[in-house]
Design a protein that fits this description.
279 residues, 4 strands, binds ligand DVN, elongated
Length: 279
Amino acid sequence: MEGECRRGKEKKRRRRCIIFCVVAVLLVFIILAVVLGLTLRGKTLHTSDTFQGTFIARCEKFSGYDCQKIWGVFQQAYVGRDPCNVPVEEYNPLIDAAPFKPACNRMMFWSKTKDVVHDFTEKRDCFGTLEETLLGSVLDGLTWCGKEGSSETFTTGCPRWTDCENNPVRSFWNRASAGFADAACGDVTAMLNGSIPTPFSPASIFGSIEVKRFNSTRVKSLNIVLVTQDNDVTNCTNPSLNDLQKELDTGIKYNCKEVAISQIQECSSHPEKPCGACW
Ligand code: DVN
């Protein structure tokens, strides 16, 4: 009798233990599933909104702007459109929403010198490029496009720069460059590449859009900084620079100076040096 009773108790204890283990394992699975779900949801949300998140985060670095409004105006330029049919004019409302502020004597243009220019303007407060303005900075280095019949912003599968003229990215930079050049005033600076046969190309954005919009009622001079490296191929007598001078509005004074890239980099790494000592 006693033995049966003990066996009965043993069975009950074992059953209780099995039930407890099953419940414990289920609980662990439920907790894991919840944590995983929250993490993935966060990631999925973040991934699909990375572009907008980047745009807004960069915009919010500039005080006094309604970044959500600017985002909305930006999207209207390309969303729902054939990505090869986004003319520059589609971005007019965006330029109006965040107009370029003239920074007389401090505006830097460039062509085929993106890295050295931005290394300099990021480390020194002497000049500002388009990419340091609100509109230039929110989209610098990004790719985007829309599609007919869709309200989405795509960041992959978009036309490349040369695939078609009126793609969303190229039209933006063309329109923004025009707006930035329209705001140019005082002594304007441009960094060109002395390591290529034609530092000034009429087909570049600088040549085809910006130089043409420098207005002598606002721009006093254009100072070319020809960035050179050892035994370089060109200097300030390069014929393409004569073409540049011909493009300039009458009345704008032209200067050109060859400056070694090492000197610019030296200046970039010594913010205590006065701006004027850089070249
Ligand atoms: O003054 C600057 C600045 O204000 C800018 O808005 O326009 C001027 C620079 O444009 P640019 O004169 O045409 O000079 P680049 O160096 O030939 O081209 C500038 C940028 O346009 C390139 O750096 C490319 O951008 P990315 O990819 O480096 O972010 C882009 N670009 C130009 N031609 C391109 C191209 N990207 C791809 N394929 C091409 N053929």
